[in-house]
Amino acid sequence: MSSLTEKDRPIVQLLLNTGTCPRCILRFCCVGSQMLYRHPHEDLMKDLQEFLKSSREEDDAVCLDVADPPCKRLRLEHREEGAGDLNHNGAIPQLPSAGTGNAATESSAGKVCNVCLGILQEFCEADFVKKVCQKVISADYQFTSFVFSVSLPPQLSVRERAAWLGVKQQMRNLGLPLAKDDIVQLKEAYKWIIHPQLSEELGVPADGKSLFEVSVVFAHPETDEECHFLATACPDCFKPAKNKQSVFTRMAVIKALEKIKEEDFLKHFPCPPSSPKNLCDALEIQCNNGAVFVAGRYNKYSRNLPQTPWIIDGERKLESSVEELISEHLMSEFKADSFNFSSSGREDVDVRTLGNGRPFAIELVNPRRIHFTAEEMKRLQQAINGSSDKIQVRDLQLVTREAIGRMKEGEEEKTKTYSALIWTDKAIQREDIAFLDDIKELKLDQKTPLRVLHRRPLAVRCRLIHTMKSEYIDEHHFRLHLKTQAGTYIKEFVHGDFGRTKPNIGSLLNRTADILELDVESVDVDWPPTLAD
């Protein structure tokens, strides 16, 4: 049971007199009844008025009784030792008259709350809830639940502290004990009120684990500068950060309020805080769906197609890429804002990827559509494959974020199989290359290749050539099939990269060798799962 008691009377009287709204008064009295906060503003005001009129000898609670689970608390300050107590005869001292209950009610009615700046007033009403829901519906998202988040102006924390210090001072002056030193968080109370209304209007439940987020950003330009005195009192709390337009973030302000002394705070900020002229502004109402992940394998049949867009000094070198040929269809179907492409390794622009293909995954950011059947995914795969003869995809499927980690693990741990067409400057016979077939677990020292040194750190990497099988073509050409450790630079193993890869085919054959063509024949990563045709 949540209720107001006789001990709450001075708090209610003080806050009403200073322009605090009924719901904030309930917060300061630590009322934890969710249902109570959902009562209309006018009804709550009447209840508080009746409470102030009620007999002070009554020890029973007023009719503010709904059972609810305990709420989280926002600790405003450390409770002081030796708090005031009842007077010497054990009775509650008389509260100095601040006008009748009606006068207190009239002083708060129609005003913008001096603590929440109107958030627990106008922005709890049905009209605002409908405005939020219209925004959600017009955005055309698929969702089966939602999580609601709210961003509050940082100066609310300052005003809350000022109001609390006013309560604390009043209770001290009256010689009354302050039994609690925390209040119900504004965000928590707001969500208690908003959640059921949004849920009813949208037809889906509120769920803290939902991937679909509805967010509201509030601002109050009239009081924006109220935090600024904290930067002088606690400069260490306000440091510029990336992607932050102002140093006065909510967390920075809360940190400063924890550090500043009570007497220093009271020198710079009115206590209790004054009532503003204007309500908060709802600057933004936004929707965001959690990312969806699509995985598969791709084959690349072109020797003139990069894996990702090839742009040098702002100039595009080739018109398309594997990434774009796949993602343009996914972006269209999932109606996403953007995407992130990743794969198990990568091939050069002139290298084909054959066999079962290379595993890849695409993160689709903020998709409007998230539900696809297996048949719909199959049709999407067919659409990708029908759009270009340069690539093909297989095993296209929805996966979890966690599953993508398996692809990245395999990138360095697994083996890869290649086919290389090699040229030699001196004539060769079959017997000249036959010995390559007998070499097993050949250890290489590969210094970062010159061709990738602009994007990779300089290092010497130890790699293994597990097996090789040669296929004689003519006096100057042969094909070499290699099974290697993932991460091996095959081109450099063939031509030596000016001695940066040792040993190499040229040094093994004692002649100059170069690579004319390279194909990836298999990427031995057992992911994603193979799908039936």
From TrEMBL:
InterPro entries: PsdUridine_synth_cat_dom_sf (IPR020103), Pus10-like (IPR039894), Pus10-like_C (IPR048741), Pus10_N_euk (IPR048742). Its EC number is 5.4.99.25. Pfam families: Pus10_C, Pus10_N_euk. Its main location: cytoplasm. Coiled coil: none annotated. The keyword tRNA processing applies. This is tRNA pseudouridine synthase Pus10. It comes from Helopsaltes ochotensis (Middendorff's grasshopper-warbler). The lineage of its organism: Eukaryota, Metazoa, Chordata, Craniata, Vertebrata.
